[in-house]
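S1.2 Input.
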Amino acid sequence: MRNTIVATAVAAACFFSVNTHAADETTKVSGKTYVDFTNIDSKKNDVSQDNSGFGVDVTRFYVSIDHTFDDTWAADVTTDFQYSSSVGATEVFIKKAYLQAKLNDAFTLRVGSADMPWIPFVEGLYGYRYFEKTLTDRTGFATSADWGLHASGTAGNGVFNYAVSIVNGNGYKNFSRAKSMDFESRISIVPVKGLTLAVGYRTGKLGQDLESSGPENTASRVDALVAYVSGNFRVGGEYFTADNYSTALVKNAAVTDKADGYSVWGSVKVSKMVGIFAKYEDAKPSKDLSSSDENQYYNLGVSIAPRKNVDLAIGYKYTKADAGANTTKTNEIGVWSQLAF
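S1.3 Output.
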């Protein structure tokens, strides 16, 4: 009920109190794709897995249509295509589809599926999303977009930034509704040029609060980030802790669990075209139910930017996932790319 009242009030304030300004309507079509050619060596308990070998993956292909009605109103539709040779599946989704009303720099409201407060924000500071996802995205403890109401803004000449979302909770791939909605937020400050400090909070039922099967637990997640980005240099660290962060845990009152993890990363451009980057992550996806579970990951590589909107990376990834009596180790080496238009 509380989420419903807040959501209704925010929507009403924006959509019935906005003063529009005359401007020419414009439509922009853009796209971005992540393509890689790699060799994977994956072993579970020292036994080679079927996803090993050479292959080409189109891990993401976004096509966006952005339409600006005037200085206040705008709309966006972004499709999300992906193909993975390791699982042999092709999928197409609507990732973003929203109507936007921007009152001023301090308040923008989006209604529909739009960026969530945490993952896209961290990706912008990290700078190597095409090579690998960020911590909470890679480990499955957050989603980059969802259906609902999304408010954001900046103040103090960019020193203060915030984002708040009230969403269905299932992620952008599933926009089914439930009795209650989830809440995610982030606030960040830039105390000195280049330095960003941010915290985030998420709570809700993950879209499982249904009439036929009301959940007993509530999922929650706390995030923190410190990053410094200046010129050709980036360095940062991310941490999260989560409670009952799976649909099964939300539904079962007799079972609870905790998880946490951290990530550190850095990159430097050694010339206009060439850079070096690395990242290390360590996560414990189940601290109570399976205290031996652990997910360790690191990568390193060299990036090359041969021209505008084309990024290449020659790199290596290593993942070790311990789950009870099973240990899966994955080595991947190859070439990753990002192309935008």
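S1.4 Remarks. The chain is about 10% helix and 60% strand.
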